Amino acid sequence: METAKSSTRPFVRKPKRMYKDKWPGLLFISPFFLLFAVFGLIPMLFSFYLAFFSWNGLGPMTFTGIENFRLVLEDALFWKSLSNTFIIGVMGTLPQLIIGIFLAYALNSTLIRFRNVFRVAVFIPYVTSIVAVAVIFGVLFSNQTHGLVNSILIGLGYDAVSFTTSEWGAKIAISLMIFWRWIGYNTLIYLAGMQSIPKELYEAAKMDGASIWSELRYVVIPMLKPFIIFTVFTATIGALQVFTEPLVFLGRSLREEGITIVAYLYRDAFMNNFFGTASATAVMLFILIMVITCVNLLLTNQIGRSTWKGGPK
């Protein structure tokens, strides 16, 4: 009997020139990885390491095990900051995700004149300097009676509100600041998604006599699912990392009425020099973001598999 020949191909060594041709490409993309390693990966790993040590930023580091985590979990202000983060996150991000769809639909409509002007106007808050935002909202929500919002409340017969010191006043002001800054970004994302929907679908819906609500429900929103999932992910992560808005509105006092978990971390690290507990807070925040991201992923995958029943009436 003849022996069967092996069907496997013999190993062929690639010429050295093929490897040399890859070096220019690797060289061009290397700055990103170097910067990410220096300013992203290494600090993150050091933060994980520092979470198990006591350190004031200058003296020697002392290993404490999980003591930092225990101190953080026993701190009532930590739980207050976590509660504030969720409340401000929901109040500041959920409306912008919902209203952004309707704004994008209006800006995509051919019935509105000067659409480009309105598109630019909606996006301006996103590119506005945070210093300017702080000045604007400081005037709007001033604790004094001459503040714009308080003037309106007094004119309507209500008492003035101390927005920087009251429990819900601070949350409402910070949430409105977040909404105002980010509504344009999400609207632009949804607008790009609506412009990618084939025009034939819009025309078919109009021929079937679909109302605006039916067109939104059965044509626009199903086709926007990838964009909605993206904005939900980014908004959720952003809501858990809210820091700039409370800092510029409350100042370095960071009162407990509006302190968020990242502001709590900042307060521990750079105002109290407790870098160990600050790192422990950062680690717990990282775990929390990962858990919520996984839950979001499971929910969005389930929504993606579901089918929309019915049609335009």
Automatic annotation (TrEMBL):
Residues 82-296 form the ABC transmembrane type-1 domain. It is a multi-pass membrane protein. SUPFAM superfamilies: MetI-like (SSF161098). The keyword Membrane applies. InterPro entries: ABC_transporter_permease, MetI-like, MetI-like_sf. One of its GO terms (cellular component) is plasma membrane. Keywords: Cell membrane, Membrane, Sugar transport, Transmembrane, Transmembrane helix, Transport. It is found in: Cell membrane. The keyword Transport applies. The chain crosses the membrane at residues 23-52, 86-108, 120-141, 172-192, 227-244, 274-299. Gene3D superfamilies: MetI-like. One of its GO terms (biological process) is transmembrane transport. Belongs to the binding-protein-dependent transport system permease family. PANTHER family: ABC TRANSPORTER PERMEASE PROTEIN, INNER MEMBRANE ABC TRANSPORTER PERMEASE PROTEIN YCJO. This is Sugar transporter. It comes from Shouchella clausii.
